[in-house]
Amino acid sequence: MDRLNYKPQPKPASEQVGYLAFILVALVFALFFVMPIVWSFANSFKPAAEALANPAALFSKAFSLENYRRLEHVGAGWYIYAGNSVIIAAGTVLLTVLVSVPAGYGFSKFRFPGQGLLFVLIMATMMIPFQSILTPLFLILKLVRLQNNLFGLVLIYVTFQLPFSVFMMRNAFDAVPKALIEAARIDGASQATILRRIMLPIALPGVATVAMFAFLNSWNEFLAALIFLSDQNKFTLPIMLVNVSSGIYGIIDWGALQAGIAVTMVPCIVLFLLLQRYYVRGLTAGAVK
User: Fold this and answer.
1) Are 238 and 225 in contact (CB under 8 A)?
2) What values do phi and psi take at 251, rounded to 5?
3) Subunit info (predicted)?
4) Residue 193: in which H helix or E strand, if any?
5) Banded model confidence at residue 10, pLDDT cuts 50, 70, 90
């Protein structure tokens, strides 16, 4: 009866004002982040004349795919570059997850000589500026005949993605109680079975976070792709955007550039919306016991 008759007390006026102020500030920041995305998508569907208008209107009454058609004539065509980016991103995600999951599990649940030192050395590689080792990486890829090769670029991305990924997976596995592993061992489960059927489903948010970071970093990376790829048919979307922004004779095709930006953004936005809840849970995995 007490629960049925319970009436929530109104919040103090100061707390309500603070809450409204927080909402207002959040909306302003959201507007700053969302408006460039909306502007790019809106301009990508405008006719060329309206895309170059000054001042430019946010929306247009005319709907046109002309800007996307012009992207087909940029180098080998945007679909070729998009396919290369998909191959590189998928390969980077797959190899990063396959290596970081067992590595994180090993650092979390096993004890072996030199474990702490090895983990520190792996984390220390995150402090090395990528630009400072471009020359050695180029020589190594040339030595193993993977220069100007999509798989060679995947190996480069995986190498720089692994320290963060191993760190994330170790934290994710640290949050799993050891009692589950001990119970599985009593039932006769092997280490591979424990990892595959018990640990991995529980640590799925961490895996999703690692996969998302690997995808976004490899999808948007520009410098390594520019240096290690010399065949135009193997270029990625970021290189295509630079070619469009440079323009012919210095004239920038703003409509085609906005269309290229839209093509590049769509997979990232879709992936984030699909994995958003796992992403937030994965970032906080292992933060508390």
Assistant:
1) yes
2) -95, 120
3) The complex is composed of two ATP-binding proteins (UgpC), two transmembrane proteins (UgpA and UgpE) and a solute-binding protein (UgpB).
4) helix 191-194
5) low
- Angle formed at CA 131 by CA 155 and CA 115, multiple of 5 degrees: 60
* Rounded distance between C-alpha atoms, residue 95 and residue 93, angstroms: 6
Considering only the C-alpha atoms of the chain, give the largest distance between any 2 of them, rounded to a whole number of Å: 80
The Cα 289–Cα 93 span in angstroms is 28
Both ends of the chain: CA-CA distance in Å?
Answer: 38
Tokens 């090395």: give the residue. 128
What token pair was written down for 79?
Answer: 């679909």
* Beta carbons of 146 and 152 less than 8 angstroms apart: yes
Nearest in space to 271 (alpha carbons), one of 279, 262, 263, 281: 279
Cβ-contact 221, 238 below 8 angstroms? yes
Least Cα distance to 256 among 240, 275, 236, 267 occurs for 240
pLDDT of residue 71: 83
